Amino acid sequence: MKQRPEKFFDEHGNRLDGRQRDEMRPVDINIGVLSNADGSALVSYGKTKVIAAVYGPREPTWRYNVLPDRASLYVRYHMAPFSTEERKSPAPTRREIELSKVIRESLEPVVMTELFPRTAIEIYVEVLQSDGGTRTASITAASAALADAGIPMRALVGGVAIGKVDGVLVLDLNEVEDNFGEADMPVAAAPDLGLITLFQLNGVMTLDELKEGTDMALKAIERIVEKEKQALRESATEVEAL
Amino acid sequence: MTSESKRYVVVPGEKVSVTKAPEGPYIYEFQGEKRVSVVGLVDSKPEETSFIPIKGFYVPREGDVIIGLVTSHGASNWFVDINSPYQAVLSIYDFFGVRQGGTLPDDPFNYLHVGDFIKARIVTFDRIRNPILTVQDKELGRIVNGTVITVKPAKVPRIIGRKGSMLETLRQGTGCDFFVAVNGRIHIVCANEALQEIAVMAIEMIESQSHTTGLTERVKRFIEEERKVRGV
Q1: Residue A38 φ/ψ, nearest 5 degrees
Q2: What ipTM was assigned to the predicted interfaces of this complex?
Q3: How many helices (H) and strands (E) does chain B have?
Q4: What tens digit of pLDDT does each residue of A181-194 get?
Q5: Which of A31, A204, B7, B83 has the fewest CB neighbours in a 10 Å radius?
Q6: pLDDT bracket for residue B127 (50, 70, 90)
Q7: Which residues contact A214 (CB under 8 A, 6 or more apart)?
Q8: Residue A182 sits at the chain B interface (C-beta within 8 Å)
Q9: Are B119 and B181 in contact (CB under 8 A)?
Q10: Among A69, A151, A193, whose Cβ lies nearest the Cβ of B30?
Q11: Does the pLDDT of residue B145 top 60, yes or no?
Q12: Beta strand B77-81 with A120-129: parallel, antiparallel or unpaired?
């Protein structure tokens, strides 16, 4: 278990990993990394690494998942046993079941499920390495994988977390800041539509901090979605370069 | 492709002003503006701006002639995989061309096995029922010769080419007979196995390089070279 650091900022006001308070970790998005899935993406936010695989729309694997008027979206968020510092039991935990639901609900507003009634779209998200912000990285990965699978979407979604440590708002929490900070606020949005699809807050923030944090998050999400678009464009033109 | 045409990739959520797009859910309107819902190419020319989806899958439409793979059977029907989100159904009465409840052979399921490919037409399909197939027409039914390969349905227009130009290149180059079904399955009948291999390789080449320019010429050269190497 990591220890609580004495201070979250050095004398220059930089964070423990040398970032400014409104600086993201390096974001890397790779599209089409799996050949057996219909669509896939590997996303890393610094040391956090998440892979997403999308199947469908197809005949539902579970009959009870059938919805008569639209496709059902199934999301499984899972952390690999080797993803954390101490081994994580591979059995699904309460937290993973909850995050699966949270990720599904943050994607449902953008996926055009009404076009394919009685089918299922399955999204498998596997956390390969966890260093805070796995749910937001998962949303970004799932959105990119859905676009790679060719499933009609109204827009791309990206996610990022805002936190409060030592009374200061910071962007894109890492694990230490998440564990020992005062607040954690994951946000996901589709900037093209001006739509917030996920908004959670764990901890205490003033109303002003909430507003400032939301602005910070939305600005960062715009940059993340821009990266997502860039990665998708590259995956579509890779052959052209030959 | 004319020289003044300009092409660029668009991704879901981006605004476009296109005048031509294939049938499907590729373009939608949000607050009065047209946006794309899948990754594709915008081909902008002086006379028109068209959208070409790069990624996607086959959605059944009534009247489409498709190539299906028999996966299992029920009491009076076969279940057919048509490379789409929905599984299709072929009635045994339709297969034998008799009226519902008419006389059938004693062993109807011995005439079409799991793993067989069939060429069929979609009779009905809507939001509440899975596609129903018929094989009662000219050139429909079980595929008995050649080979069937599956490609991404979004690549089918490129394999056919403008006014069938790419298909004509393949036909002339290999001397094979091609039937390209809209669901991304291609039936190839060739004079010998070497030619069949070349045909399959050429189609794979088109699939992987589908959005590049000057592809028809490259495919032509590829087939000629392969034929020289293999001596056919």
Answers
A1: -70, -30
A2: 0.88
A3: 5, 14
A4: 999 999 999 999 99
A5: A204
A6: confident
A7: A162, A187, A199
A8: no
A9: yes
A10: A193
A11: yes
A12: unpaired
